[in-house]
Amino acid sequence: MRRIKGEKKRRVQQVRASTEICHGGKILIVPLEGSHWVNMDIMIKALHSRGHSVVVVRTNKSWYIQDNSPHYRTITVPVTEAFNHDFINSIIKKIIDIERGESSLWSFASLQAEMFTAMFNMHRIMCKFATNMFKDKYLMNSLNESKYDLVLTDPAWGTGIMLAHALKLPLVYNVRWITSGEGHMAIAPSPLSYIPLTGSGLSDKMTFIQRVKNLIFSVIWQAQDGFLIHPQYQAVCDQFFGPEVRYSDLLQGADLWLMRVDFVFEFPRPTMPNVIYIGGFQCEPAKPLPEHLEEFVQSSGEHGVIIMSLGTFVSELPADITNVIAAAFAKLPQKVIWRHKGDRPATLGNNTLIVDWMPQNDLLGHPKMKLFVAHGGTNGVQEAMYHGVPVVGLPVFFDQYDNLLRLKERGAATLLTINTVDKDNNFVEAIQEVLNEPSYRMNMQRLSRLHRDQPITPLDNALFWIEFVMRHKGAAHLRTESYKMPWYSYHSVDVVLSFLATVAVITFLPLVFVRYVCLEKCMKRKTNKK
Amino acid sequence: MRRIKGEKKRRVQQVRASTEICHGGKILIVPLEGSHWVNMDIMIKALHSRGHSVVVVRTNKSWYIQDNSPHYRTITVPVTEAFNHDFINSIIKKIIDIERGESSLWSFASLQAEMFTAMFNMHRIMCKFATNMFKDKYLMNSLNESKYDLVLTDPAWGTGIMLAHALKLPLVYNVRWITSGEGHMAIAPSPLSYIPLTGSGLSDKMTFIQRVKNLIFSVIWQAQDGFLIHPQYQAVCDQFFGPEVRYSDLLQGADLWLMRVDFVFEFPRPTMPNVIYIGGFQCEPAKPLPEHLEEFVQSSGEHGVIIMSLGTFVSELPADITNVIAAAFAKLPQKVIWRHKGDRPATLGNNTLIVDWMPQNDLLGHPKMKLFVAHGGTNGVQEAMYHGVPVVGLPVFFDQYDNLLRLKERGAATLLTINTVDKDNNFVEAIQEVLNEPSYRMNMQRLSRLHRDQPITPLDNALFWIEFVMRHKGAAHLRTESYKMPWYSYHSVDVVLSFLATVAVITFLPLVFVRYVCLEKCMKRKTNKK
Questions:
Q1: Which of A216, B239, B334, B490 could form a disulfide with B485 if both were Cys (CB 3.0 to 4.6 A apart)?
Q2: Domain B20-281+457-484 belongs to what architecture?
Q3: B494: nearest CB among A14, A208, A477
Q4: pLDDT tens, position by position, A219-245
Q5: pLDDT tens, A381-391?
Q6: ipTM
Q7: H-helix or E-strand spanning residue B328
Q8: Angle, CA of B351, B100 and B410, to the nearest 5°
Q9: Class of domain A291-452 (CATH, top level)
Q10: What gap in Å lies between CA A28 and CA A72, rounded to an integer?
Q11: Looking at the keywords, is Glycosyltransferase present (chains A, B) (predicted)?
């Protein structure tokens, strides 16, 4: 089929209509930290460039969210305790020890306990954040008087959700995770037979045993949510809104879910009318590289360039692993750019450039880019997909294995675990396989073509729907309120039980009657005989 | 909030990208008759104007689909029997008699039997259509050699679905109904607790009794599908594809479902990634009226105009009802345009113009339009919504009551049944209520604003996704194949039962063991005592 560029009159009219924009909107944002903030910041800049004024609510202990920005104004709520995000390095060390078999069952239990505690503490601090904010009458009055159009938040933390309720404002999510795993789980029917739970490492095609595993993961997530996390937020709701306001209703009642995936990446699954897919909204065509990087990249000649990054959180790997990685890179004819913060590995080759930070999107979009060694964070994976660069995955924790699995299932990535990197040339062989087997690149470029072939870019889609909520004061018509039904009604348990009871009565009543009549007759006969 | 027109650089770039079109695509269409054809014809004209060549497959007994058109070529498959669509007038007469209480239970049973028979016969003829086509080796070879890009069909009839399988082509639906009710029911989880079944006359908020009714409707639909309709198509599959090919799999396995509703009209519900909403794709801004109609409309002065149409199928109502309707219209200060094919009512007023056909969309979009008296077909309801014209509904059969109910629930319509039209000034009062109570018009205009506020028009969206399927040879990544699982796996019945069995074994095994040990000891003691 021939593809040409053309502009039909009707299309152009349509375009004009879709560029009607809302100016002067006022948006209150309660963001999350880390890579989530990197995302939200892109959205904020886009909203700012469309003429909206953005106010960001953060704590005084924020790690990422800057106080001063040309794109937004901040409101800082004091909390006494900061979340200690150094726990991540301690967790990574434990994970590596466990994966290497150097640890006992006790270490495994202690790792799980540490992760649960960290999560519990994070939500505890978020609840403190909300409590301090709601107690501050002056602040709440001023927020009320500012007449915002909506609250935009990441619902993996609950402060923004409760703030929207307190201010009676429409609520929009920039979301991938909620407290109980993947965002869809809160509102879309999710049959466990083909919807793999977060962290289960399963795909949408499962064996019987895998489906059992999936059910167990579902129980763990729900228990964690029901016993550890929701009660904390519910306590804040009880204190400020009264016990009739359920936190889970507030979470499920958002107007729109701007979901940071799409179905080129995610396995197909049931969804809801108020879920808008914006996966890869942060991706854009590559900009020119800084001069020194461009020079380095060009020096790779026909062999091209590899980049490696383990994301925002992972700053250090154990020296023995980094040495193996560096030695593997040194064997390759490609040039390598490695985002690495620890000590300089002793085995580093001349072909490898170590950097503190790199323009990842611009490098991935460079024509000389051959391969991305990635930890599997959503952002990196989406950028690799957007630019069609195949991946060697080195997942560490959270959703990283699940993310990389989605690429692997489509033949666009290969996966290593941290514990096998240093064994039997595993790492260099994985890289060479992806470099030399053309199907990896072809599959990733197919994903890239599918992902880019949308009627409107994901970022424009996000902006359209945020402004839609402003124009119509919400999007209630897209939201089912079925979550307000009791579970037995939602699942028709009451109807089915009544139906079965009726059938039983209709079946047994004549039997009982017949039996009664027979007995009566028998008795009479006996009496007569006597 | 101020709304202005503006064009940002990035938006324009995006627009250019989204207007990249596929030229020279070859599309094979197996349409449905009646108002479904009216819809499909609009789609065909749009596809033709985008440079695609369209071939329509029809029978020699087609009622609506013309043989000659500048927009498509036809392939005509001979069948010996035509579907007798006059049955509709007979059914309408029976419905009116029943609604008026002039009929016995016997008439009700006979009506149901007649409707089932008509449906059964319709699908029987469609199966004959498919059989004759598949038997014609020459035709099938020629279709195969023509290398179409996809089959576009309306899955309420199954011929196109099986043809796509026979030709191994991607399959796209222009759909609202399937054989077992509303299209979503085939692929999206549809909890009966808040998804009202077609024909049930229920909304998404149901009492316990209504949920029981909904379950009964679900059973009826499924029985009708399972015993009357699917077996006919399955027999064709068995004959030509072998028994391992299940018709229900073919139905569920379409690449895309272009669904002729949106969530301004339909109650919010779970959906799937491969369902694209194109509700109202046939609507467009009003064109100028023919001179005589414009003159008539203008003569209404400040009072404005009312139009009435009972759609494609209903040509005649009983004379006593049309007389009441005409007399009611005669009392109004408005001018009335009435699409009516029967005898001229004796009570017709000077303000009422009877027409055989009218440019409904152009009239609905006229500034003097005040009210639409409609039977509730999807097309008319969507057009009324698009133009923001409130409705007095006179539903007769099929989905009409359900369609009008959706407007009524949003305060944009009022409903009458045919049997109450002629009692106590009901009809004229209903019209006056909608004319005089401003909320009807305001609510409908709110729906209109919501419906029109989309990033891309429904027709452009339909065209984009049809061309997407051409560009990528299908859209498998948007389609879950969970429908291929056995029901007990899909609903995790096997997993849950195994889990319960394991729990039971773990609980009872120690008890059994303890009991065994105790018994052993007791026995020994007894033996010792002896």
A1: B490
A2: 3-Layer(aba) Sandwich (3.40)
A3: A208
A4: 989 999 999 899 999 999 999 999 999
A5: 999 999 999 99
A6: 0.90
A7: helix B319-330
A8: 65
A9: alpha beta
A10: 10
A11: yes
